[in-house]
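Hello,

Our lab assistant flagged a job as stuck in the queue for most of the afternoon. It eventually completed. Since we weren't sure the result was trustworthy after the delay, we are filing this so someone can double-check. Below is the sequence as submitted and the structure that was eventually returned. Let us know if re-running is recommended.
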Amino acid sequence: MINGDISNASPPRIIVVIDTVVQSEVKETKKLFGSTTERVVSKLNNKELTHLWNQAFKFGLSVELAAFSDQYWTQEHLDKLMDKLDSRGGNPFNYAELYGSIDDFIGELPYRSNLKGVIDLRERVMRYGSWGIELENL
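-- returned structure --
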């Protein structure tokens, strides 16, 4: 913000990997001529979603939901989750993006000037370097 002009200001952004707010599992279905693998969402982590909503509102953060297609997430999963949270009236996410792989995603991070951190599971948070944040530490 320069002299009260807000046109050039962008809010700080955090990116939340979908595995931190959704419980799911990968199921393989065997068929006569091969098999299919898909991700099935079992439930939402309401405690984590509430904490994320409160912190994003408190600090004025822009929050992006990220998922990876190589982990069997689809755009349909993201759209359903966003619609479900919108209908509840408590959607902390401003954006949802499906990335090809976690390595592609990590390669894009240095080019995001307003990025403050990436929230992921404890076992994967170190992959993001200084951007890695566990949800409890937000």
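-- support follow-up --
The delay was a queue issue, not a problem with the job. The result is valid. The beta strands are 13-17, 22-31, 34-44, 62-68, 95-99, 115-119, 132-133. The chain has three helices and seven strands.
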